[in-house]
Design brief:
Length: 218
């Protein structure tokens, strides 16, 4: 259960509200709650992926282990065992997650895409913070660097385009779902992004929270 904030000024309020909700889930519903991301700094900033690895069976086993056992984990709220039907709830406050893909120009291969992804993902030689990336080949031989941008309020899609473009020529971009306005600041006009509609795919516009951004993507 991520509580998503749309600007950095709302981070503190989102974290506070997420903690209140987490406590209510644990105390009122009797479902164990594990905090992750920004709320889990005292837990070494554990991630959702880390907690979900191995599925609910593995997580339930970790909750039921002796505190001294390897991999043992204690809930932040609620009982020390998975609920028999509701399982475990993971709670965080975070920025919107943006799914963003870049198609490479032919004759790029999937090996090229994987090489670029390894370079630019967080932890890579030229890694960007909060960026997850893999290289894939789609139907028709299209080669793509497929990414999740976990901190789009701090890392714009223009910066991602620039980073990938340093290592391979780009053919087009693809936004899957929605993105906050800040993530689209400075997006290069010359890079096609077929199907993108600011009224539908910018979160603030889709929610009528703000006036639509420039339609220079059309």
């Amino acid at each position: 259960m991520p509580l998503v904030y749309l600007d950095t000024g709302a981070r503190g309020a989102a974290c506070a509200e997420a903690l209140v909700v987490a406590e209510r889930i644990g105390d009122e519903l009797g479902v164990p709650v594990l905090l992750y991301g920004e709320l889990a700094r005292e837990r070494d900033g554990r991630t959702r992926a880390e907690l979900r690895r191995g599925g609910i069976a593995r997580l339930a086993a970790r909750l039921g282990s002796s505190p001294a056992a390897e991999g043992a984990i204690e809930p932040d709220f609620g009982p020390p065992a998975a609920h028999p039907s509701a399982g475990v709830t993971l709670v965080a406050a975070r920025e919107p997650l943006v799914a963003f893909n870049l198609q490479l120009q032919s004759p790029a291969t999937v090996a090229d895409a994987r090489r670029v992804a390894a370079l630019i993902r967080e932890g890579g030689e030229h890694g960007l913070p909060g960026l997850r990336a893999i290289g894939v080949q789609l139907a028709g031989g299209v080669v793509q660097v497929s990414m999740n941008v976990e901190r789009p309020l701090e890392l714009s899609l223009a910066e991602v385009v620039q980073a990938v473009g340093r290592h391979a020529p780009l053919a087009s971009a693809e936004l899957v779902g929605l993105a906050p306005r800040a993530a689209l600041d400075g997006f290069p006009d010359e890079l096609p992004m077929p199907g993108f509609d600011p009224a539908l795919h910018v979160i603030e516009s889709a929610l009528s929270l703000d006036t639509p951004i420039s339609d220079h993507f059309n």
